[in-house]
Amino acid sequence: MDSDHVVLQMPSIDPDFEVKSDSPHVRPINLSNRVVIVEGPLRGGASCDIYAGEIELEKGRKEKVAMKQLRVFMNWTDKERSMATKLFRREIRIWSSFDHPNILHFYGYATVDTCRFFLISPWAASGNIMEYLERHPGANRHKLIIQIVKALQYLHGRAPCAYVHGDLKGDNVLISEGGHALVCDFGLTRRIEKMASMTATPSGRSPIGHIRFTAPELFRLGCKPTRESDIFAFACLVIQIFTGQQPYRELSDPQVLSVVMNGGIPNRPVDRATRQNGLTDAWWNLITRCTVYYPSQRPTMSEVVNILASTQFSTEYPVCISFQ
Prior knowledge:
CATH class of the largest domain: Mainly Alpha
CATH superfamily of the largest domain: Transferase(Phosphotransferase) domain 1
Number of domains: 2
Domain Protein kinase: 36-313
Mean pLDDT: 82
Low-confidence stretches: 1-25, 198-208
Number of strands: 7
Structural class: alpha+beta
GO molecular function: ATP binding; protein kinase activity
Helix content: 25-40%
Order of helices and strands: EEEHEEHHEEHHHHHHH
Largest sheet: 5 strands, antiparallel
Radius of gyration: 20 Å
Keywords: ATP-binding, Nucleotide-binding
């Protein structure tokens, strides 16, 4: 599934879904007449449920796909429902414009039973990166992290304007059939939670994503995710990948908030398993640079690439470090 994307004849498209794309062949495709739900929901979050589906290809061939359905709550107002739908449509426009081997491919969208709206993507049988590493503890963590770096470098360097992921964590990195990292879920959950919570919280303060991956500046009212907060979250994700546990694992959520707001960073894991997984001094030095309190003092993703391509890393992991 790494190189074989669905090839479908382009149907007519609602003008609202027209997007500028890195590839002239990548446009949102209406798959409503070509996909069926097979099983589910298999998993879900605060805003979406994931179903297993099947898509009909050329010559009668079929392929298993993931179908992400927007979860609309009965107590939502018409305005909230409309805003959630707009956010879902926005993700379609954004996701369909991406063209990178380490970003989950977007096949199209579908409406089922006239009222259920889905985003369609390849089925990642290996699950997310943490599930994969639990089943394959000997997997090359360095290589997977480099693939995540490549995806973020692509997002942050997009022209004419960079794209911020906004919700980096282990749940949002899937593993392809071939064992490659695929970044996914570009902040949709966080944005819908924000929309749904605005009328529920007097202060207007809204959910900001997983607290253990959140940069200190995002705890301030009105601050939005940036490339710099992505860098902070990336470092926390690296800790999660090497340790198999979330950052600040010894602290409660309120304690994490206090530590982060006071400029603290996660303690370096010193257990034997983490060292064997490859968390070296070089990696920890990079993590500490990416988690400094002030956003302007964190390296950019391009600088992270240069650090990983330096002699310090390339001599230690010559097979993994490649940005060609």
